[in-house]
Design brief:
Layout: H1 15-19, H2 22-28, E1 42-46, H3 58-76, E2 80-84, E3 86-87, H4 91-104, H5 109-112, H6 114-139, E4 149-150, H7 154-169, E5 173-183, E6 188-190, E7 195-210, E8 217-222, E9 233-236, E10 250-252, E11 259-264, E12 276-279, H8 285-293, H9 320-334, E13 337-350, E14 358-367, H10 369-379, E15 387-389, H11 392-402, E16 407-408, E17 410-411, E18 421-424, E19 430-432, E20 443-445, E21 449-450, H12 452-456, H13 459-462, H14 472-477, E22 480-486, H15 490-505, E23 510-516, E24 519-520, H16 537-544, H17 546-555, E25 563-564, H18 567-589, H19 607-628, H20 632-659, H21 664-685, H22 690-699, H23 722-744, E26 753-759, H24 762-770, H25 772-779, E27 781-787, E28 796-801, E29 804-809, H26 816-842, H27 844-849, H28 852-881
Parallel strand pairs: 1-2, 3-4, 9-11, 15-23, 22-23, 24-25, 26-27
Antiparallel strand pairs: 5-6, 5-14, 7-8, 7-13, 9-12, 10-11, 14-16, 17-21, 18-19, 18-20, 26-29, 28-29
Helix pairs in contact: 10-15, 16-17, 17-18, 18-20, 19-20, 19-21, 19-23, 20-21, 21-22, 23-25, 26-28
Length: 882
């Protein structure tokens, strides 16, 4: 505990100074570590593990700030909080980075061999894990580092192997030949959801295949003519009268000369194109299924790098797209290709490399998804369901699960969890097991590794010690309470965690899943390297501090919605932090030598004291409720309004009266209220802005080591005074009305004026008289009259508030003749503007030819000018008739 008697706040708020040493204080003090106290209710979050490939982006900052806010609040509410950190090995991404690094050294993984390559990859992991931790530190994330995990550490690797073998033994994992999504750039398989579809300007190529022993031809159209080299049939619909006579006959494959069967299959759409389709079972998923039904040969025509293989005949060695160009030219020369059409269509691209994905026949490992999906769907029908926030995302999740396809889980990489399958060197027998074969020299392990998402799907329970179901953390902290993640990985990760958790623990992995959107730039565009519109959160922190970034991210939108990044809004949150700093510093300067033991809230309180305590109660209630519902933006609005508008702009200003006065008892009460309200406010604000609140709280009279473990505020019934709130609202309305009238007639607060207040009741008269000091301080009247029977002065400005009417006699307030003259000139100005814009809008040429945006702007100007003209006219009429 720092010395509460010593005020050590610089005159200017500098987030760099405030934030630079505080995180070490928290971590070294063990304030973030789950203590396992059985008297406390556990609250658990597992961090979505970032890829161990380098920088955290703004999305990570947003996601983790929400988690930190929940963890800090729950810790203060007395929960045993475990916020578990960790990182993902990110198979494809990390291997690509390491291989790029080797390339710079004129090496590749094959030069090193698998074992040496993995050593380099582990070195990479250690280097970038430290970098990620430094970014977590800069953001102020309250993580329990004593429990940090990595998807390839020993415990998690054991869990991965247990799940794989168990699913294999249940018949839910199988190995087979199948059409998969192949990335020729990284030369690995991809799951369906690792394929991004983009609209591409392509071509439709129309060809005529000749019928054997006939003058007839059959028309075929394709977007990928190079795949015809692997054609093994032509299919037509069995009910298509145009082709019934051809079923069972053969066509001659151009270029190749191979004879192909004409088969009947109901998959064919008679209405699409010619109604006849070429079948390439090794390079199209639908053709693969047709091929299975008709026992067709599968001819693979490409190497894994996308170049043509020996089955491509004279095109061998060409890149697939170069082959396309060449075969189109050859087909045109032979007269087979008779038409080429422009064709805009969706083409799959690798999420990792950006390469066009190739449907490719390959032997891979798969998860039989339907039984697992059915279990996960049933989970959502009972009380143990996963609650999606917002709940509309449950429909998104269920739709995907109801239309699930088998999951290709093998990847042709070295970095990752190697598949626990071995093949006998002599017999070819396959063995799948938790341990290597007893005679390993006779067996070779499968070269492939598992999809990264396979291990991260186990994250909520593998990190807790599972498969040891007696592990202390697993028994205490699983299932977790909330997962925070973006809607873009519901399928990649959220769904997989749910079905794996249900299968292996019988429970949901988390009670709630809070879904947020994406961070976009100020124009609403997705941030990307190609657009150059990305923003590094560390740069934002360097400029404005972590607290400003956090508060902006938390309060900028509602759950499920995208967030637009604006530098101006981050600056505005810095201004808010600066306001908090300055108000706290002023308060502390008036509390020197005031200790925690000196706080006494039993003394006679002023109206301002009673009102701020009442508003504190109401704010605590709203912030607690909204943060608990994940409505961070709404909670932030209540915090902002209370701190800026009520605590800083009103209460602290009103507190100056007793603080600067001679009444020592009133001074002590004011200091006590100020100390208490600031303490409770810093606690409420702490999960949102941890650094500045800890710094201020340490300067305040307090008890305890850190605000991180201070009790969360609770409303106190004895401090709720509805009458005081109503009185204060009336007082504030009067002061604001007087200020508005002064501004309207350009009379500064320094100039004294007459103020008459006609109250509706004697009780209100007594109330205002009791608070006369506030009216005199903030309205600066030369004369103040409060009564129920006041007559309105002949010439006066007036305003109505609840329970009273105000009159400010014009005499002494303004020079009426001078004001009329000024307003006449202003009316002339706005009249000319109205005439100008209306003439412009009456011009048909302008309205029809100018861009709609320009026309709309002129119409808005017309509205604004007319409104200003009307106000000046009304003011002139009022002055001329008074």
């Amino acid at each position: 505990m720092e010395d509460a008697n010593k005020i050590n706040m610089s005159s200017k708020y500098d987030p760099r100074e405030v934030e630079k040493d505080r995180y070490r204080f928290w971590v070294d003090g063990g304030f973030f570590e789950a203590d396992g106290d059985q008297e406390k209710e556990p609250f658990t979050i597992v961090i979505p593990p970032p890829n161990v490939t380098g920088k955290l982006h703004l999305g990570h900052a947003w996601d983790t700030t929400m988690q930190d806010t929940l963890a800090r609040m729950k810790r203060m509410q007395g929960y045993d909080v475990l916020w578990l950190p960790g990182m993902d090995h990110a198979g494809i991404a990390t291997q690509a980075k390491v291989e790029a690094k080797l390339k710079e050294q004129d090496q590749n993984r094959y030069d090193l061999g698998r074992e040496k390559f993995l050593e380099v990859a582990w070195d990479w992991k250690e280097e970038y894990a430290d970098f990620i931790r430094s970014q977590w530190e800069k953001l102020g994330l309250g993580l329990d580092y004593s429990r940090e995990r990595f998807t390839m550490d020993k415990g998690l690797s054991q869990a991965v192997r247990e799940v794989f073998v168990s699913l294999y033994e249940k018949g839910l994992i199988y190995r087979g030949e199948y059409i998969i999504n192949w990335d020729p750039a990284t030369q690995t398989a991809l799951s369906d959801i690792e394929v991004i579809y983009e609209e591409v300007d392509g071509k439709f190529y129309h060809m005529r295949y000749p019928i054997k022993d006939s003058d007839e031809t059959i028309e075929i159209a394709t977007t990928r003519p190079e795949t015809m080299l692997g054609d093994t049939a032509v299919a037509v619909h069995p009910d298509d009268d145009r082709y019934k006579h051809l079923i069972g006959k053969k066509v001659i494959l151009p270029i190749v000369g191979r004879e192909l069967d004409i088969v009947a299959d109901s998959y064919v759409d008679m209405e699409m194109g010619s109604g006849a389709v070429k079948i390439t079972p090794a390079h199209d998923p639908n053709d693969f299924e047709i091929g299975n039904r008709h026992n067709l040969e599968r001819i693979l025509i490409m190497h894994e790098d996308g170049s043509m293989n020996e089955n491509a005949l004279g095109y061998q060695g060409l890149d697939r797209f170069d082959c396309r160009d060449q075969i189109v030219q050859d087909l045109q020369e032979q007269g087979v290709l008779y038409k080429i059409e422009d064709h805009l269509h969706q083409v799959g691209h690798s999420e990792r490399s950006g390469a066009v994905v190739e449907p490719y026949l390959s032997t891979q490992w798969f998860v039989n998804m339907q039984p697992l999906a059915d279990e996960a769907i049933d989970l959502q029908k009972d009380n143990g369901k996963v609650h999606f926030v917002p709940d509309r995302f449950e429909r998104t999740y269920l739709h995907w699960m109801e239309n699930i396809r088998d999951w290709c889980i093998s990847r042709q990489l070295w970095w990752g969890h190697r598949i626990p399958a071995w093949y006998h060197k002599e017999t070819g027998e396959m063995y799948v097991g938790r341990e290597a074969p007893a005679d390993p020299e006779n067996w070779e392990q499968d070269e492939d590794v598992l999809d990264t998402w396979f291990s991260s799907a186990l994250w909520p329970f593998s990190t807790m010690g599972w498969p040891d179901e007696n592990a202390e953390d697993f028994k205490r902290y699983f299932p977790t309470d909330v997962l925070v993640t973006g809607y873009d990985i519901i399928f990649f990760w959220v769904a997989r965690m749910i079905f794996q958790s249900k299968q292996f623990t019988g429970k949901r992995p988390f009670k709630d899943v809070l879904i947020h959107g994406l961070i976009r730039d100020a124009e609403g565009r997705k941030m990307s390297k190609s657009l150059g519109n990305g923003v590094d959160p560390m740069d934002v922190i360097d400029q404005y501090g972590a607290d400003s970034l956090r508060y902006f991210l938390l309060t900028g939108t509602s759950p499920g919605q995208d967030l637009r990044f604006h530098w101006q809004k981050v600056e505005a949150t810095w201004n808010f932090a600066n306001k908090v700093w300055n108000a706290s510093r002023f308060s502390l300067m008036n509390m020197e030598n005031f200790t925690y033991e000196d706080i006494d809230l039993n003394g006679e309180k002023s109206l301002a004291d009673k009102w701020i305590l009442t508003r504190l109660n109401e704010t605590i209630e709203q912030v607690t409720k909204n943060t608990g519902k994940y409505e961070f933006g709404e909670a932030g609005r209540h915090l902002y309004n209370f701190i800026w508008d009520e605590l800083c702009d009103w209460y602290i200003e009103m507190a100056k009266l007793p603080l600067y006065g001679d009444d020592e008892e009133a001074k002590k009460t004011t200091r006590s209220v100020l100390a208490y309200v600031l303490d409770q406010t810093m606690r409420m604000l702490h999960p949102y802005m941890p650094f500045i609140t800890e710094e201020i709280w340490q300067q305040l009279p307090h008890e305890g080591e850190s605000i991180t473990t201070a009790r969360w505020p609770e409303p106190k019934a004895e401090f709720h005074d509805e009458n005081a709130a109503n009185e204060m609202n009336r007082l504030v309305s009067i002061i604001k009305s007087v200020r508005n009238i002064r501004a309207e007639v350009d009379t500064p607060i320094s100039k004294q004026i007459k103020l008459n207040i006609k109250a509706e009741t004697e009780a209100i008269v007594q109330e205002l008289e009791h608070n006369r000091s506030y009216l005199e301080r903030f309205c600066n009247p030369s004369e103040l009259t409060v009564a129920t029977d006041l007559e309105a002065p002949e010439k006066a400005m007036s305003a109505v508030v609840t329970g009273a009417e105000l009159f400010l006699p014009l005499e002494g307030l303004i020079d009426i003749d001078k004001e009329i003259s000024r307003l006449e000139k202003e009316l002339e100005k706005w009249t000319k503007e109205v005439e100008r814009v209306q003439k412009k809008l009456a011009n048909e040429g302008f309205v029809s030819k100018a861009p709609q945006k320009v026309v709309d702007e002129e119409r808005q100007k017309e509205t604004d000018y007319l409104e200003k003209q009307a106000k000046v006219k009304a003011r002139l009429e009022e002055l001329r008739t008074t």
